[in-house]
Amino acid sequence: QVQLVESGGGSVQPGGSLTLSCLGRGFIFGWYDLSWYRQVPGKERELVAKISTLSRKVYADSVKGRFTISRDDLKNTLYLQMNSLDSEDTAMYYCKAEFQGLVGGSWSTNNYWGSGTQVTVAP
C-alpha cells in the first residue's frame, strides 16, 4: 500500500524553526520527484519546494533563503527545514511524490499525496 506520511508540524513563534519530514512507503522512493506544497483555507494549494531525483531544487520566491528541501532515499524520507518562520507560513503542508517514465516498456505516471501536517506561526 502506497503511503506518504508527514510529521513535524506544530505551533511556533515568529522567527522560529521547524523541520517537516515525509516518510514514503510502498513505492520506489528514489524514482520519484518530491515536493512540499501548502494550503490555507480558501486558497489554492501552492508549491513550496521541489527536489528532483537528481537533487535539483526549486523554491517558491516566498521561501527562498529560509526553507531548505532535502531527501534521503536510503531512509525513504523527504525533509523541509523551515527557518525564520512568519505568520504567512501558517498552512497545512503536504508532501507529493511524482513519477513519469518508462516501466516495462510502457509510459507510466504516478502522483501520490500525503494527508498533511499543520504548521501554525503565531506569537
Q: Largest beta sheet, briefly?
A: 7 strands, mixed
- How much of the polypeptide forms β-strand, as a percent range? over 45%
Counted beta strands: 11
Low-confidence stretches: none
Shape, per Cα inertia axes:
elongated
Q: Structural class, judged by helices and strands?
A: mainly beta
Assembly category: single chain
Output the number of helix runs. Answer: 0
What portion of residues is helical?
under 10%
What is the overall pLDDT average? 96
Radius of gyration, in Å, reads 15 Å
Describe the structure.
It is a single chain. The chain is mainly β. 0% of the residues lie in helices and 57% in strands. The chain contains no helices and eleven strands. The strands form two sheets. Strands 2, 4, 5, 6, 9, 10 and 11 form a seven-stranded mixed sheet that branches. Strands 1-3-8-7 form a four-stranded antiparallel sheet, with no helix packed on it. Strand 7 and strand 8 form a beta hairpin. The protein is elongated and about 55 Å long. The mean pLDDT is 96.
In short:
0% of the residues lie in helices and 57% in strands. It starts with a strand and ends with a strand.
List keywords for this structure.
seven-stranded mixed sheet, mainly beta, 123 residues, four-stranded antiparallel sheet
Give the helices and strands, then pairings:
Blueprint: E1 3-7, E2 10-12, E3 18-25, E4 33-39, E5 46-51, E6 57-59, E7 67-72, E8 77-82, E9 91-103, E10 106-113, E11 117-121
Parallel strand pairs: 2-11
Antiparallel strand pairs: 1-3, 3-8, 4-5, 4-9, 5-6, 7-8, 9-10, 9-11
